[in-house]
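PROTEIN DESIGN WORKSHEET
SECTION A - STRUCTURE
LENGTH: 344
TOKENS:
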């Protein structure tokens, strides 16, 4: 399912806590919360460009960057009234919001439903209480579990955001978070490795030696494992990593340290694809120096080759193939490959 988003950014709006990693102004590229009139003007300008997303299966206005349901109810309704006008026009299908898990009680869900919200993204970050405490999230893992259950029971599409490399997370905690999260069956997940922004508590801990971010290699490896676990449940991961440049989403501009790469998500998917292929080939094959033919979905062809051709070079070496032929086959599921050995 393709989703087209008209974004509205509310940096840190409603958040009662300052997590150790958080600098919403830098992450979202805006230092202040827009007024209702600002939102009205921004959406008007956005739609004046002719953007409609007609080719997408779902079109939404999304309120990102803050804890929407922790705003004053009157302000929530004022923002939602602006967005709802575009739903009535038929220019979008529905609305989505992002928020914290402890702010999704029955009254809050009822307000969202009344104004046409269909999707709720929840900042889970971790399902380890120890990690949450060291991160100063201000809530427990059980809050996230109950929030996801309540929102799904109320009929909302539910997304969950988790972060890799938080303080106190040695990798095992991220993998356990993924397993526990998948048992709750969210509709989609976003994965973000922790990066350190100037002006945050993490920046202080970095300089004082109390925190060390994941290296790029370790972040890619861990994210590939988490991605594999989540996809094994049939749950889509719709985003991996921050944007590398300013745009409609969280950006890596202003990062002090951490695993930043212009194509982080691509690196992760390449790594997972390589590992899946390597596992399949390790089950045995004919003598070396034969031709290995791989049939893949056309959209996965770039994953076979990998970043700068590294995947194909590695597969050629470990398989002992004389050469590898890659063929497009739309009948092969995305993320998978069918291999066969051919006499040269």
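SECTION B - SEQUENCE
RESIDUE ASSIGNMENT:
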């Amino acid at each position: 399912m393709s989703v087209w988003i008209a974004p509205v950014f509310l940096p840190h709006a409603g958040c009662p806590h300052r997590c150790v990693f958080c600098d919403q102004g830098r992450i979202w590229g805006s230092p202040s919360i827009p007024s209702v009139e600002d939102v009205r003007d921004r959406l008007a300008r956005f739609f004046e460009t002719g953007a409609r997303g007609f080719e997408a299966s779902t079109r939404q206005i999304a309120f990102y960057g803050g804890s929407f349901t922790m705003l004053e109810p009157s302000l929530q309704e004022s923002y939602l009234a602006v967005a709802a006008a575009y739903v009535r026009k038929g220019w979008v299908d529905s609305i989505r919001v992002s928020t914290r898990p402890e702010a999704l009680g029955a009254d809050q869900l009822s307000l969202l439903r009344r104004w046409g919200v269909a999707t709720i993204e929840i900042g889970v970050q971790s399902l380890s209480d120890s990690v949450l405490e060291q991160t100063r999230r201000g809530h427990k893992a059980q809050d996230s579990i109950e929030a996801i259950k309540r929102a799904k029971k109320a009929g909302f599409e539910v997304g969950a955001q988790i972060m890799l490399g938080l303080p106190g997370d040695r990798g095992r905690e991220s993998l356990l978070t993924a397993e526990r999260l998948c048992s709750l069956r969210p509709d989609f997940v976003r994965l973000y490795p922790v990066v350190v922004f100037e002006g945050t508590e993490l920046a202080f801990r970095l300089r004082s030696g109390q925190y060390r971010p994941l290296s790029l290699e370790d972040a890619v490896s861990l994210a590939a494992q988490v991605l594999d676990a989540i996809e094994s449940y049939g749950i889509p991961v719709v985003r991996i990593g921050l944007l590398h440049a300013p745009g409609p989403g969280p950006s890596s501009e202003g990062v002090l340290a951490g695993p930043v790469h212009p194509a982080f998500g691509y690196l992760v998917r390449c790594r997972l694809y390589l590992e899946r292929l390597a596992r399949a080939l390790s089950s045995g094959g004919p003598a070396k120096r034969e031709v290995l033919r791989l049939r893949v979905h056309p959209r996965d062809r770039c994953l076979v080759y990998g970043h700068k051709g590294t995947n194909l070079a590695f597969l050629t070496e470990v398989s002992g193939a004389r050469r590898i032929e890659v063929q497009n086959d739309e009948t092969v599921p995305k993320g998978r490959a069918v291999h066969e050995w051919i006499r040269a």
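SECTION C - NOTES
The first strand starts at residue 3 and ends at 9.
Confidence is low (pLDDT under 50) at residues 245-249.
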